[in-house]
Write a structure and sequence with these properties.
Helix content: 55-70%
Strand content: under 5%
Largest sheet: none
Order of helices and strands: HHHHHHHHHHHHHH
Number of strands: 0
Number of helices: 14
Radius of gyration: 28 Å
Distance between the termini: 47 Å
Structural class: mainly alpha
Amino acid sequence: MPDVTKTKTEQVVDAVAAPAADPAASVATEKARSLWGDAWHDLRRRPVFVISVLLLLVLFTMAAFPTLFTSANPRAGQLTDHFLTKPQLTHFFQPDWFGYDNQGNSVYARTVYGTRASILVGVGVTFVVTLVGGVLGMLAGYFGGWLDGIISRLTDVFFGLPFLLGAMVVLNAFTKRDVLVVIGALAFLGWTQITRVMRSAVITNKHADYVMAARALGASTTRIMFRHVLPNSVAPAIVVATISLGGFISAEATLSYLGMGLADPAISWGTDVSMAKDVLRDNPHVMLFPALAVSITVYAFIMLGDAVRDALDPKLR
């Protein structure tokens, strides 16, 4: 309460001399968020992100623990009892829910067990191409010169090869095509896009003020690359990798359908679709459910990639 005995001028002087609230203190009370913190804060409020994550959680759980979803044996074919039996859509989670295929196997059980191979291929290829492409793009973008020229020309050569056709040629050299072989073949041709994206991001960030300041303070090249440039350049590569993961799953299914991907006894959605092509006209259910599983998985990863892209790009917020 102001002192009435003081003149108005004295009250103004006292108010000016009184310690003002420190704005820095109020800001310090709020938790500072980085780019990733802002992205996570934004992602949690996006329905597309929540839906895609829930779908992927179900798919990853199905791949890791298929017995939680079905007790049927996906290889226990009984031609005499189950040959092309139609789906029983009211028998939820039962072996005959999706019907039986032309080998007498439960379509539902094979759809559940096929998740593992398809997810492993997608995640494995994405990990390899992100690692290889990220390292090559980092080296090309940061050092430039002759190293950039060699990596860029090599990238152009591989980028010009038809992806599926090249993968078929590579896989044709192997008599046994298991998950690791398919991952290697797809990764051998799929690293180019990550390399280009990473190179562009590194070129943009290596001239930033914070990099110049670190260099002026005597920071080593390794410290600048991994402490300053890499954390600020990896976001576009993560977005591309997330979206590409669904494409790699689709590529595996396509190769398996053509007989050049995973082969029996491996169980995957692509092999099931391939076996179903002979009975598609009269029994479309044999192909419908594994093909639908591929579509849902690819769509979930594309939705996740779109949400991550929007969250990491400030211009799209």
